[in-house]
Amino acid sequence: MAGYGTSSAHGQSQSRTNGLAIAGLVCGIVGVLFFHIILGPLAIIFGAIALRQAPVKNGAGMAKAAIVLGIIDLLVFGILLAVAASTGGFTWYVGG
What we know:
mainly alpha
């Protein structure tokens, strides 16, 4: 009788999608909403590295989407920065 962990056919699933492509895509999606200036460049870097690894690992589509979303993140940050600069910046109101 086989013990635990001796069966090599079951329990081992190998992901064929590039992890950097997934990480870049997640950074790009979250970066649209929060932390544009940090997650945008990370999405572009992860996407570019994953795109270079695309012939070996799958995920070229996700890598391209990560790069596009990273660029969109930086554009959103630039637009928000321009709007803040044209309206006099941010004001903080603390009670009283």
